[in-house]
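My current task is to audit a protein record that another person submitted. Please read both lines and tell me whether the tokens look consistent with the sequence. Do not assume that whoever made the record got everything right. I have pasted the whole thing underneath without changing anything:

===
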Amino acid sequence: MNETGSPMATQHPLLELKDALQHRILGQPELVESLLLALLADGHLLVEGAPGLAKTTAIKALAEGVHGAFSRVQFTPDLMPSDITGAEIYRADEHRFEFQPGPVFANLVLADEINRAPAKVQSALLEAMSERQVSVAGTTYPLASPFLVMATQNPVEHEGTYPLPEAQLDRFLLKVSLDYPDVGIEHAILKLAREEEALQTRALPQVSPDDVLAARRALNDVYMADAVTDYLVHLVDATRSPERYSAELAGVIEFGASPRGTIALDRCARALAWLEGQDFVTPEHVQQVAVRVLAHRLVLSLSGQAQGWSGVSVVNHLLERVAVG
């Protein structure tokens, strides 16, 4: 810990990188923060937003800052699992097969418009995300560390798409929905774009993969009081038995968050506290990440959807109903 008692020994490079990313990726602070939370908590990020909202720019900038290998996969209906995982290539001159790694063998992977690929392709990515490995022709190949997948979905176009199954949605640590920036931010974006065209963009602070792995270990030293833990657990429980917390939600949720959601909420709250330079988690940290962690894990009933409820509105409603402490 530093002189103030915060576990900051390996945090400074990440804080510098966070500030630099916020200056480069204007108008999307939640996206930048969520990328860093996913990186720190060893998870993956699902981003929903229209084209042109700096999704690709953000993850490429993060890869630049952490010295990580970056790859991008454009998901299409004709994509094959081997296009992601790689395949064995026959070397005729040597009379043998050689494994040719696919784009998933990188530190940061952008799965662009993931819902445009069929289920078998999504399943191949699912193994890589959850197991941190790829199996080809009976052989298992470990993936790089750190490893982060940022998948995107276009919320406007649904023709020719394959909705992500609940099992895969649950594999994403966080989900973020992006909106257009306001006019003031748009002016700043235009100015930044002109500077980039003139090659005036400042280099990002550098964070090594070892720094990231050390930071992940440091999350275990971030203190969470029993009262905060109880609040976190009750918040997740409220997604399973919402009628106990609000009569308005009776019959709205068909399936609540799983224990994986509880663990994700704990890790993200710790990571947020750590990013803010604090050595303890507050209820506010839990509240700030709750929608991003829990909303996409909920399966709403048909009647709940008909009433106009969404995962986001349900979690926000529960945040108002579940008591702190």
